[in-house]
Structures are given as structure tokens and as C-alpha cells.
Amino acid sequence: MTDWTDPDAVDLSDGETFDALLDRAETREKGHFFEFFAEGDELVHDPGLRLSQHGSEQWMGQTLNHDPAYWRADAARERDYEDVPVHPDYLLACVMGITVEDLSEKGGYFLGRDDVQFHRPATPGTLLAVTSTVVDTRTSSSRPKYGIVTWETEGRDRETGETLVTYRRTNMIPRREPAATDGGAVGEQDAGGPTLPDTLLSPDGEHFADFQRALDTAREEQAAVAYRHERGRTMDDQLVAGLPLATLNTARQHHNRDEMADSPSGDIVAYGDVTRSIALAHARSDEATYREHRFADERFHDFVTLGDTVYGFTRVLDCDPDAGPERAGAVTFEHVAFNQEQTPVYSGRRTALIQRDT
Ligand SMILES: CC(C)(COP(=O)(O)OP(=O)(O)OC[C@H]1O[C@@H](n2cnc3c(N)ncnc32)[C@H](O)[C@@H]1OP(=O)(O)O)[C@@H](O)C(=O)NCCC(=O)NCCSC(=O)C[C@H](O)C(=O)O
């Protein structure tokens, strides 16, 4: 009788034998299908992650978020930070990265995020504690193989218990069993041509007063304050696979080319937080940012894959001179990331504190 614990019992040099072995082996699964999630469930995400200066600088460097307030003590003090904090995009990506193994590792699409709030800055060395609550589950009417799940997530400092960031995110999650639906209409477009303002204005500078002036002028002229950013960033392996893995994001979409070969993208795709951070970096390079405040209605419209180039477009929606400290006012933007074919891949509303002219 063959001893199946004998390392030599299976001839691995014989491809046919190994194929047959793999075909019969059960796959030990990772992640959860849609059916796992029930409204009200709370998930405590285990891996934890210590935010690091290196991780933050690597994120900033690769995504073109070159803001010295997040790496130089004098620049941080100038922006009223007690210590040099990690970059907020890195913080957000790390908080979400930790959740992926429990929430979205099975694949599916990161559709959007809402109510992103930064409660306090986080410094390098902070150990994260992250929990999520399932707030909604529903069947996708257009894609019977998927369900749609929304979670609320909170990232805290594990040592002090202080809340750092909170948000609500929605993903399409593969179902173990396809649902019976009417098949729905996929990506239907509205009929009729586009309605656009006659004039698009751009602010004269990067300070709060420049945005406010442009918005006031636009209101008088039935114009919009909307502009493109010159920089683009082509997605390479470091961005697509390296950055998500550095945040412990285990979603196969970002690092398993073999699995992704049969997917609609045909290849690995960028982590939504990387795409978003690049578009925001383009926008921030044209403004005197004081602080990030909140984000709303973030959507991922299309996937971004290796070799795509991410550009940015910004529309100014509102200016509030009374929000924020004396030296800054709040500006609400809509940012759009688009690719080399001018296809939007991300959009979101962002309120940031922008420095007044000094
Ligand atoms: C996902 C897409 C292929 C969908 O395209 P399309 O069918 O054209 O879009 P619809 O607008 O019809 O949406 C389909 C259904 O999803 C619901 N939906 C869409 N957005 C939201 C939202 N923000 N909140 C709630 N629900 C939403 C619609 O209501 C539709 O529902 P139903 O009719 O019942 O089916 C396309 O959008 C696409 O390719 N998007 C890009 C996705 C992407 O690349 N994301 C980022 C990369 S993946 C990632 O980062 C993974 C991450 O690591 C993680 O783990 O989450």
C-alpha cells in the first residue's frame, strides 16, 4: 500500500500526475462570499498595522503627494501639527487595507465610499485597530453573480483608543450561488447631449481667496470653476501591486495576474485608494492645502490597469470662509481621475482647508 505521507509518494516531475493531484485537492478558501455578510454583524480586523514614516513616504513619493508637512518637522510645525503626521491618504489606505482580508478579498468591485472623516492626525509608530459593521446587503439586479455590501469602518489608535478615521464603503462581492434576477440593464446611458457651462474658469492662484474669487466670478457669469491638472502618472507594478500589499491589502485584483487573466480587465487592477490618491495629488499640487477634512460620494467608475495613465480634473463647488482656523477657509471640490482615453475612473467630493493668502 502506498504511504501518502512519504514525500516521494508523488512524482512531481510528471506533469500529468501533478495536474490530477491538483484537480482532486480541495482549495482552502480565503475571504468571504456575499452570503457570509448579515446586517448588523461587527467584524474586528485582526492583522493590525503599525503606521510607519517609511510607508507614508513611499506612498507619497509614488503617488506624487510631495507635501513636506508629512516628512519635515519645520514644515509640519508651519501647518500647526505638533509632530510630523503620516499622510492622510496613506492612513486611509492602511485602515482599509487591513479590512480587505475579512471584507473583500474574494474579489468584486470597490464601488465607492462615503462620509470619510479624519478625526485626528496619526503619527508614525501608531498601531491601528480597525472594526467594521455591515450596514447593508442587497442583491445586484444587474449582476446575478454578485451582491452589494456596505460596511461602516472605524480606524483607531490601538493604544489610546482614539478614533482616527471613519467611513462607509460599498463593494460588489461575489456570491457563492448566483441569484435569480431579471438580469437588469448594465451601464445604461442617459439619452440626449451633454449640458455644459459656456465658460470654464480656473483660479488665479492656489490660496483660499483665489478659489473664492473664481467662484464669485463664475456665479456672476453662469460659468463653472473647473480645470485639468497637467501631471499624469502611469501605473507600474510598484503602484498596482506594491502599494496595496504594503497596506496589507490582500485583494487578488492587485497582485494575482493569473487569476485576473480571465476577468473583464484581463490583468491586475490598481487599488482604488492608489488611483484616488494620484488624482488628489495632482489637485493638491495646484493648491495651498492646510488640512484634509472630509470626503463624500467617492465612486470608482472603471478599472485602472498596468500601463494606464491617471490624470486629474477638478471642479470647485463651494467656499466657506468661516469654517476652519483663522489662517484657512474650507473649499469643497469635486475631483475626477481619468485615464489616457479620458475615461473617468474615480470621482469624489472633497472638503479641504486651504490656506489664506499670507
Ligand atoms: C463595477 C462596474 C463594472 C459597474 O459598472 P456599471 O454596471 O456600469 O455600473 P452601475 O452604475 O450600473 O453599478 C452596478 C451596480 O452597483 C451599484 N452601485 C454602483 N456604485 C455604487 C455605490 N457607490 N454605492 C452603492 N451601490 C453602487 C448600482 O446601483 C448597480 O446596482 P444593481 O443595478 O443592483 O446591479 C464599474 O463601475 C467598474 O468597473 N468600476 C471600477 C471598480 C474598480 O476598479 N474599483 C477600484 C479597484 S478594485 C479595489 O480597489 C478593491 C479593493 O482592494 C477592495 O478590496 O475593495
TrEMBL record:
* Region of interest (Disordered), residue spans: 175-195
**Superkingdom field:** Archaea
The UniProt entry, under Gene3D superfamilies, shows: Hotdog Thioesterase
Tell me which InterPro entries the record gives.
HotDog_dom_sf, MC_hydratase, MC_hydratase_acr, MCH/BMMD
- What molecular function terms (GO) are annotated for this protein? lyase activity
Which NCBIfam families does this one have?
Answer: methfumCoahyd_Halo
The protein's name:
Acyl dehydratase
- Which organism was this protein described from? Haloarcula rubripromontorii
